[in-house]
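Hypothesis: this fold can be encoded by more than one sequence.
Test: take the structure tokens below, design a sequence, compare later.
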């Protein structure tokens, strides 16, 4: 149940336009849990959390579009930083390789959704190789193994 309270609080702050307070809530929540869904939710929030700019209405149309483009670049960079933090945590502390692979897949999909601002190659270099195991269960299910590159 506490996760529902956290989600409701985060959703409330987002609805109020409190971008910085929402970031603080996500960071506090990550102090308590490093669950995959929290990392993904935080990254998605950052990807689309365009800060309101009070002085933007005085700009000519080209200036408004350029300002929006710059804000979108900042959102993409903040989302990437959240994913990098999550990947670093997974690499050093999380024993579950499947979650690490899932996180990278979500990141890859998000990069492709960014259009011209996306950098798919940034994530592709981190993706694991999926290896089929020779061990099979009696029902014919195959096991997948993941092979990650170590970035030291």
């Amino acid at each position: 149940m506490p996760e529902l309270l956290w989600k409701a609080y985060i959703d409330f702050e987002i609805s109020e336009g409190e971008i910085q307070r929402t970031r603080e809530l996500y960071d506090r929540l990550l102090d308590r849990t490093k669950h995959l869904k929290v990392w993904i939710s935080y990254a998605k929030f950052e990807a689309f959390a365009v800060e309101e700019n009070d002085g933007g209405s005085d700009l000519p149309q080209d200036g408004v579009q350029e300002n929006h483009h710059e804000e979108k670049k900042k959102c993409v960079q903040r989302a990437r930083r959240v994913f990098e933090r999550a990947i670093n945590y997974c690499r050093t502390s999380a024993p579950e390789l499947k979650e690490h692979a899932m996180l990278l897949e979500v990141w890859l999909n998000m990069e492709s959704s960014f259009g011209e601002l996306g950098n798919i190659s940034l994530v592709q270099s981190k993706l694991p190789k999926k290896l089929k195991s020779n061990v099979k269960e009696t029902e014919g299910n195959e096991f997948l193994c993941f092979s990650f590159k170590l970035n030291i």
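The mean pLDDT is 81. The chain has six helices and two strands.
Hypothesis status: open.
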